[in-house]
Amino acid sequence: MTINRRQALGAIGAATALSFVSTRGFAQEGPITVSALYDQSGGLESYGQPIVDALRFAVDEQNAKGGLLGRQIKLNVYDPQSNMQLYAQFARQAALSDKPAVVFAGITSASREVVRPIMRQFNTLYFYANQYEGGVCDRNMFATGVTPGQTVQKLVDHSIKTNGGKVYIVAADYNYGQIISDWVKKYTADNGGEVLGVEFFPMDVTDFKTSISKIQAAKPDYVWSALVGGAHISFYRQWKAAGMLGKIPMSSTTFAGGNEHVILTPEESNGIMVCQNYLQELDNPVNAQFVADFHTRFGADYPYITELGMGAYQGFRLWAAGVEKAGSIERMPVIEALETGISVQAPSGLVTIDPKTHHTTMDVHIARVENGGLVPVQTFTQQPPADTALVCDLIAKPDDNQQYVIDF
Q1: Which residues, other chains included, contact 247 with Cβ-Cβ below 8 Å and sequence gap of 6+?
Q2: Which residues contact residue 294 at a Cβ distance below 8 angstroms, ignoring those fewer than 6 apart?
Q3: Fewest Cβ atoms nearer than 10 Å: which of 13, 183, 230, 358?
Q4: Cross-referenced InterPro entries, in alphabetical order (predicted)?
Q5: Residue pair 167/220 in contact by the 8 Å Cβ criterion
Q6: Strand order of the sheet with strand 32-37?
């Protein structure tokens, strides 16, 4: 089911009254509840809706196999509407009213950092399934999306070898865009390159003409985009209108995460280079079956199965494997089971929990946008979360609870 703001208002007060609760019990019978908080409106719905679809698919798939521990799974979905206050309200409601075995939540890093402390407060296991800037060290959280050491490094290296070392960065103005820009600077310097300029844009900005003029004047070898959200799609349209697509190459680890390559025309997006854990075009038997089954469930005309959706799907699969190994849905037994280094063979390839960081080792792929799809160019197998591993060791420090920003 999907819960909106109006339906939640009455429950929030009751949930708040229970805010002293620090432990939760699970019913011995009945379905296992999984809660999900993802933007399905408010500006980030192009990211959130495919994630929710992937979770629904994962739950249906697991239930068709008999569920978990002999119990069916019920998915409760909340729409925070790209609003941090609603994220906080729904996170408390989910933890206290749903009493879920696990919560999947958050697209932006800002929403993650709203949800994460609430899940710790109420001892509720939390999965963050999106690509992000890395560095979160929290035993109560598992991150199943890519981090900069897995994708940004590969794409910067490829871009410099292909285009040259001078780069101009445009990025969303929040911690993801800012920190990713720092990683691009680092990896550019490591390759002997030069950053000619960096510009940050609030999430609601739609006019990029001045910035495009600055880029034209700077004459970089390529542009790095860390833009995010529906408003920022305007950049790519204005870039094409200025005659720049194909003239100055562009690379991005955010492009296509919200189906930008489907929303834009080929004339507005062909040739942009991306690096992701998952491409719908991956040629392996697991992915072929997954795509066929997904299209049977949601229709042959489903736009594209995004990397962010895959992060949630493989996160659910890892959680389910942890439950089966633990023989329980209780939080700590599942955490301890996952910390044994559980793996699943996902459509994206082998995905393995790294016990020290609670992040994942996975394959990543450089691809080129072409006619509404992503054409694989180069694959890097089994990439560890090397950036977060520099600062996080939950085996040695299980009580660690912070996001580290690596000092370059």
Answers
A1: none
A2: 57, 302, 305
A3: 13
A4: Peripla_BP_I, TAT_signal
A5: yes
A6: 2-3, 73-78, 32-37, 102-105, 126-128, 141-143
Position 12 pLDDT exceeds 50: no
Contact, 160 vs 188, CB < 8 A?
A: yes
Strand, coil or helix: 205:
coil
Question: Which residue type is seen at 281?
Answer: E
φ, ψ dihedrals at 166, nearest 5°? -95, 120
CATH of 148-276, one of 3.40.50.720, 3.50.4.10, 3.30.930.10, 3.40.50.2300: 3.40.50.2300
CB 331 within 8 Å of CB 139 = no
User: Distance between CA atoms of 185 and 127, rounded to whole angstroms?
Assistant: 29
Helix axes 307-326, 331-338, angle to 10 degrees: 110
Both tokens of 37, joined, read 């908080």
Alpha-carbon distance 396 to 376, whole Å? 38
**What per-residue confidence (pLDDT) applies to 229?**
84
Per-residue tokens: 406: 């690596």
Percentage above 90 pLDDT, the chain = 88
- pLDDT at position 44 over 60: yes
d(CA 334, CA 339) in angstroms, rounded, equals 9
- What is the chain's Cα-based Rg? 21
pLDDT (mean) for 37-59: 95
CA distance 167 to 328: 50
**Is residue 20 pLDDT above 50, yes or no?**
no
pLDDT of residue 16: 40
CA distance to 90, 354, 356, 379, per residue, from 340 (Å): 31, 9, 10, 27
Q: Give the start-to-end residue ranges of the domains of the chain.
A: 2-147+285-362+386-403, 148-276
Per-residue confidence (pLDDT) for residue 408, from 0 to 100: 63
Within this chain, domains 2-147+285-362+386-403 and 148-276 share the same CATH topology: yes
Spacing of C-alpha 230 from chain mean position: 16
CA distance 156 to 249: 12
The pLDDT of 204-226, averaged and rounded, is 96
- The full length of the chain comes to 408
Yes or no: say if 24 and 93 are a contact pair by the CB < 8 Å rule: no
Question: For all residues of the chain together, what is the average pLDDT?
Answer: 92
CATH number of 2-147+285-362+386-403: 3.40.50.2300
Q: What is the pLDDT of residue 230?
A: 82
